[in-house]
Structures are given as C-alpha cells and as structure tokens.
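Example 3.2
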Amino acid sequence: IFLPIYAIMEKAFTSFLLILLLLLQYVMASSAMTQINITTDQSALLSLKSQIISDPSHFLDESWSPDISVCLWVGVTCGSRHQRVKSLNLSNMALTGRIPRDFRNLTFLVSLDLESNNFQGNLPQEMAHLRRLKFLRLSFNNFMGKVPSWFGFLHQLQFVSLMNNSFSGSIPLSLSNASRLETLKISYNSLQGNIPEGIGNLHNMNLLAMQFNQLTGSIPLTIFNISRIELISFTGNSFSGDLPNGLCNGLPILKGLYLSKNNLHGCMPTSLSNCSQLQVLSLSFNEFDGPIRKEIGRLNNLQELYLGTNQFTGIIPQETGNLINLVKLSVEKNHITGSVPISIFNITSLQLLSLSANNLKGTLPREIGNLTKMQHLHLSTNTFIGEIPKEISNLVELEKLDLAANSFSGRLDMETFNISGLRAISLTDNNNLSGILPPNIGSILPNIEEIDLANINNLVGTIPDSISNCSELTFLDLPSNKLTGLIPTSLGYLTRLQYLN
C-alpha cells in the first residue's frame, strides 16, 4: 500500500516538531536547573558572609554582592562545564567568623582554602555532603572540637591541612577510609590518644605530619610500609616504644623522618641505610641508646642529622665522613667517646657541628679549617686537649663558636677568631689557656654580641679601650682571670650591654 506523498511529509514534519519540542524542554529544564544551582551556591556563600564578623580589608563587603555573578566574586572559581562553584580561596584575608551549615549546598566544591584567618568553632557535620572535595586547607585558624569523623566519607579527599588550630580529642578511625588521601597535616593542635592502625592503609600517602600534639602509644608499624611516603613528622608528642628493625625496608622514597621530642627508646635500626633518599633524620630528645650505626654512612643524600639528647654510646663512626652532602650534624648530650673522626672535617658542606656534652677527647686537627661554610661550631663540655688550631680563622662564615669546658692549652691568640661575622665566642673553663685581650679587639670582632672568657685563669693584661667598638656586645664575662688595670670608661658606650662580669 502506497501512501500519498503529502501524508509522508506530514508524518515526517510531525516527528520533527516532536523532537524539536523535546529538545526545547530539555534546554529549558537544564537552564532552569543551572539557574537554581547557581542560586543555591550564591545562597550558601552569602550565608558564609553573614557569619563573618570581621573583614578588615573589606574583601567580601565589596565583591560578594547578589548584583554580581557568583563566579566573579573574590576567591570564587566556577567550573566551565556546570558553572558551579568548584573552588573557594579566602586564605590570608584576616577574616573572623564561622562556617555555616548551609555550606553543605556547595556540592560541586573541589577545593576549599581558608588558611591564615581567624575562623572559629567546630567544622559543621553538614560539610560531609561535599562529596567532590579533594583539597581542604584550614590551617592557622582557631577551629576547635574533634577532627571530624566524616572525613572518612569524603572518598575524593587528597589533601587535608588542619595545622595550628585548637582541635582536640583523638584521630578518628574513619580517617582510614579516605583511601585517596596523599597529604595529612594535623600538627600543632591538642590531639590525644593513639594513631589509628588503619592510617597505615592509606597507601597513597606521601606526607604525614602530626608534630606537636599530645599523641601517645607506639607508632603503628603499618606506617613504615607506606611505600609512597616522603615525609613523616611526629616530633613533639609522647610516643613510646622501639623503632622496628625493618624501619626502612618499606620506605624507598622517604626524604624526611622527624621523631624528635618523644619517649622513644631502644637501638638505632641498622635498616636506616635502606632509606636511600633520606635527607633529614631527626631522633633528638628521646631515650635511644646503643651505638650510632656505621650503616648511617650509606645515606648519601642526608643533609641534616639530629641525634642529640639521647643515651647513645660508643664512638662516632668513621663512615659518618661519607655523608658529603651533610649540612647539619648534631650529636650533643650523649655518652659518645673517642676522638672526632678526621673524615668529618672533610665534609665541606657542614654549616652546623654540635658535639657538646659528650666524652670526646683528643686534639682538634688542622683539617678543621676545611669547614669554610661552618656557621655554628659547638664542642663544649668534652675533654679536648692541645692548642686551638689557627685554621679556625678559615671559617669565614662562623657566627657562633663554643669551645668551653675542655682542656685546651697554649697561647690564646684572638687573631685566630678574626672573623667579621662572629657573634658569640665561649672559651670559658679552659684552665690551661693563656694570653691577652688584643688592643684591636674592637676591629677583630666588630659584630660580636657575646664574649665568655671566664675561668681561663691565665688571661692577663688589661681590658682594651677598643672594646667599645664592639657596638653589638650584650654579654661580657671575664672573671677568674689575671686581668689588671682599670675598667675602661669606654664600656659606657656599649649601649646594648646587658651582662658585665
């Protein structure tokens, strides 16, 4: 059966009109929905603005107006596809206020940055609806209450920074569910209790910072198996227990391990040498004992090594001299014996060497002059003997020199310390030194702030008038010597002087 041509055309035209009508309805519905969503975002942000009680620079007063498109407001970025608010950055605006419950309606929000303001109160439970959130930066505010358990429901979360707030309570177990989390910074709060074991299951983590809280218990072993982690910082808590023998077997790219100021004890694991990318190792202010492992000399990338204020015994390994990139070496306040390995004085990158308060002996070698980048040299309270090497004058960047409470002998030649940037020198309690204060001391030490030459016993002569040229001097201690003559009136020109003995 053949239909007339006009009937076919009429049927086609009807179908075309139907499709056109459906498309028109879809466009109108989409437009209406977009408008509603933009209005929803605007209402949520205006609700936030209503909670701001101080905006000293008027960032929001002048920009956040219903008469201006939300996407043009200060700190707001909208997505190109849905024209919804995807990023809010109000950092460093000195704002004071709270986050309202209506914040939940910013459902397309991916990044929230409120750092360095004065936001207060708890994080509202309603923020759990921000399911697209990936980056949350709230550091340096006055938020309080518990770290929200709903973080564990934000499965897109990659970056969380809550540092320098007033959060308290324990770290929620649910945080272990944020499987995409890469960075967690919760330092400088008042968090208590143990670290949940499940934190070690966050296999994408590359930075974990919890320093300066009140956390206790043992550090979960699972954390030392997060193979992507580059920095672990637990300084300033009350963690206890030993470090695992296989500490670095699962940390191939770890660059910073900060465990200072805890109650950790036991021996230094030999497996530390497996952290081949390690740049900073900080174990100071704990109760570690036993020897400093020679394997530490394999950490070729190490730049900073802090082992001070522990119970380490034995010698400083000769292999320490292999750390050719080392900038800071601190082993003070232990029970280290023997002499300082000559190899250490060939680490020309060293800027800080602190070996004070041990049982080190022997003489200081002439090779000390190789440390031309040295800024802080602390060797006090040991049993070093012999003359102070003249090569110290090669340390042209030296700012602080502490050789106090040793048994150095010979003539004290202040020209050795003719270093223009030197700010503090202490040779106190070296009873076998002898010498004078040179007449040109003011030009030898033009920037000196502290001079401590007490209890040398054989320091003779007078206090030179040129000391008045040490205009930065705040501390001058010269008792128990054989100085003679009058105290120069020129000392009265030292307007910064606070201590004179």
